[in-house]
Amino acid sequence: MKRILIPLVSVLILTACTTKASSSFPTVTVGELKTVLDSGAYLLDVRTPAEFAEGHIASAINLPLDQVEARANEVPADRPVYVICRSGNRSAQASAILSKVGRDVRNVGGGMNDWITAGYPVTR
């Protein structure tokens, strides 16, 4: 029984690691985002339209999380895409979705909460 179980567990572990690695994406800080935005980076804000209207980064494109999968073809495939939300949770979910369809994404950790705390500009 041990002879069968050990190889099976090894295969399961390797499969889990491979699956995670293929859909992984980096997380960046708001400071790193600010630097790349100054160079014209593409920023996707996945908060609701109401949240977006309350305050967003001037160059951000709003695409709510619940629409990301259906509208992924609208997200550029030819350059890195930075994804932001309020805290970094929804943007991580959107990043996972976009990564699976071949987009080069970076999740913005801390989201708009960290952006505002850092004193960076917000458009209303």
**Secondary-structure content class:** alpha/beta
Report the C-alpha radius of gyration, rounded. 17 Å
Widest sheet, order of strands: 1-5-4-2-3
Helix count, DSSP H or I runs of 4 or more residues: 6
Q: How much β-strand is present in the residues?
A: 5-15%
Total DSSP E strands? 5
pLDDT averaged over residues: 87
User: What's the CATH topology name?
Assistant: Oxidized Rhodanese, domain 1
Throw out a few tags for this protein.
124 residues; alpha/beta; Oxidized Rhodanese, domain 1; five-stranded parallel beta sheet; 6 helices; 5 strands; 47% helix; globular; GlpE_sulfurtransferase; Rhodanese-like_dom
Q: Any overview of this molecule?
A:
The chain has 124 residues and is an alpha/beta fold. It has a single domain, classed as Oxidized Rhodanese, domain 1 (3-Layer(aba) Sandwich), CATH 3.40.250. The protein is built from 6 helices and 5 strands, in the order H-E-H-E-H-E-H-E-H-E-H. The protein has a 5-stranded parallel β-sheet.
Short description:
The protein has 124 residues and is α/β, with parallel strands linked by helices. It has helices at residues 2-22, 30-37, 49-54, 65-68, 89-100, 111-117, and strands spanning 27-28, 42-45, 61-62, 81-84, 105-108.
Give the helix/strand layout:
Layout: H1 2-22, E1 27-28, H2 30-37, E2 42-45, H3 49-54, E3 61-62, H4 65-68, E4 81-84, H5 89-100, E5 105-108, H6 111-117
Parallel strand pairs: 1-5, 2-3, 2-4, 4-5
